Structures are given as structure tokens and as C-alpha cells.
Amino acid sequence: MDQSMIVYLIAGLAFVSVVGLGFAFTSGGTTQAQQKRFKQVAVGASSSGNKRNAAADSNALRRKQMQDSMKTLRDREQKRRKDTRGKTIKDKIDQAGWVISPAIFWLVSVGVGAGAALVAWILGQTYLVVAGVGFAGALGVPRWILGMGIARRQKKFTVQFSDGIDVIVRGIKTGLPLIECLRIIAAESPAPLGSEFKRVIDSIQMGSTVTQSLERLYRRMPLPEVNFFNIVIGIQQQSGGNLSEALGNLSEVLRSRKMLGEKVKALSSEAKASAMIIGCLPLAVMVLVYFSSPDYIKLLFTHPTGHFVLLIAAGLMGVGIFVMKQMMKLDV
């Protein structure tokens, strides 16, 4: 091998060595940078994964709390439907806002029944008619008057209830606690809203919880609006949330229900008028026949068969009025 070939060989080996060293240094730096980058990406992915897991755990916990709250409210509603409280005479007197005891109510009922039976006996009616009139006077008339008192008070309470919820919403937005808002309603609202919330405040001051006090309010005022209010307060106390927003939405819903009820009442006024005319028509015909031909209709009041016919007619009239009333009744 000549000297020129040795020089070329040494130059080639030197070139290969330099290229190998450069590649080694370059690839080593790239591997370190890649490893460092991989570590950063892995740490970021791990932290973001932890955040996502924490958010998922928080959402799952909140969802579980909401499910438990709804289950508790469903159980409470089923228990309330099976409960007989709120259906006795004492509870109905309380719902009407009367300040009499059940004993006085029953004494008055017996007096009304005895008076009606005495009037029927003075008019010369048979014992069967006297007994029927006394029974209706003792059990029908007082309960009917009591039902009218309950309906009138509940209607007035419903009209005022939306304004009371607005007071709570504004108070909570300004930073007042719920109990203080209830105290404002009790002090400044007219009856029956103010008096009912005053009893709620008194119950809370005696040691009852807000949920228990509102449950007693629902027994005194068994209205869907009060039930909705209790559900919102119960969910907020168990799972948290924006109470002012929830009660604001509830106030809008109640006002919408009221407007819908007024629309239904206006649309069904013609049917109610027709039902009233149909219900009063037999009585009007009987009165006209009595004044025009008294001997023709007097047998209904003097003969036992006539008394029996009158009882059947009164029963059929009652059933017809009840059916027409149920047909016109729309729950909103």
C-alpha cells in the first residue's frame, strides 16, 4: 500500500470518527430534551387528570346529595299523604282561622240540626223528613260553612304568598338570613300570611327546625304553593345552592299559575252559568207551579209518597250538581 492510500484511509477514519462523535452528542442532547419534555407532558397530564377526577368526584358527590334529598322529599310526601293529620275537625277549624274548640263546633252543629228538625216538625212533616232535615242541619250545614271559611282564607293566603316569597328573595340578596326574612313577613304582612308566618317564627324560637315549622305551616295551609316552597327550602338546606334564585323562579311559577287559573276561570264562566241555571231551574219551576196551582203540587208536601219523591229529587239534584262541579273543576 502506497503512502497516498494510507493518507486517504486515515482521513476517512478521522471523518467517520468526527461524524460519529457529532451524531452521538447531537442524539444525546435530543434524547435528554425529549425525556425532559415527556416528563413535563406526563406531569401536566397527571395534574389535569387529577383535576378532572376531582371535578368528577365533586359532581358525583353533589349528584348523590341531590338524589338523597329528592328521595327524602318523596318519602316525606308519601308519609304526608298517608298521614291523617290535617283532616280532623280541629285541623279544619285551624285552617279556617277560627278561634273555637271542636267541642263548641259540635255543640253548634247539634243546635243547628235540632233547630232545623224542630222547624220541619212544626211545619207538619213526617218523622222521616224531620230526621233527614235534622241530620242535614247537624252535619251538612256547619261543615259547609266551615269549608267556605277554609276556601276563603286559603284564597287570600295564595294571593299574598307570592309577595311574601319576593320579600324573602330581596332579603337574601341583601345578605339577611332566611329566619330574619320570615320574621319580616310575620311582622309586616297582613293576615292570614302574617299570622301564619308568625306561628312559624314562634315554632322556630321554641326549638323546632325550619323544615319542621314549614311542615306545620303546610298542615294549616294544605296548598300546592306551600308544598313547593317547602321543597325548595328543604333541597337548599340539604344540598346548598342559590336560594334567592330558586325562590325567584318559584315566585314566577306561582304568579304564572295564578294567571292561568284566572284564564281558566274566565273561560269556564259560561259553563258555570249554565250549570247554575240548570241547577236552579227545577226549584224555580216548583215555586212557579206552587203559586199558579197550589193544589196540584201540595201533594208533594202533604202525602208520604210526595215526601219520598222530594227526597229522591233532592238526592238526584245533589248528585247532578256535584258531577257538574267536578266536570268544571280544573287543577292548575
TrEMBL record:
Regions that span the bilayer: 6-27, 96-121, 127-146, 273-293, 305-324
Annotated Type II secretion system protein GspF domain residues: 166-290
InterPro entries given in the database record: T2SS_GspF_dom, T2SS_GspF_sf
Compartment annotation: Cell membrane
Keywords: Cell membrane, Membrane, Transmembrane, Transmembrane helix
Membrane in keyword set: yes
Annotated region (Disordered), positions in chain: 44-87
Name of the protein this chain belongs to: Type II secretion system F family protein
Lineage: Bacteria, Pseudomonadati, Pseudomonadota, Alphaproteobacteria, Hyphomonadales
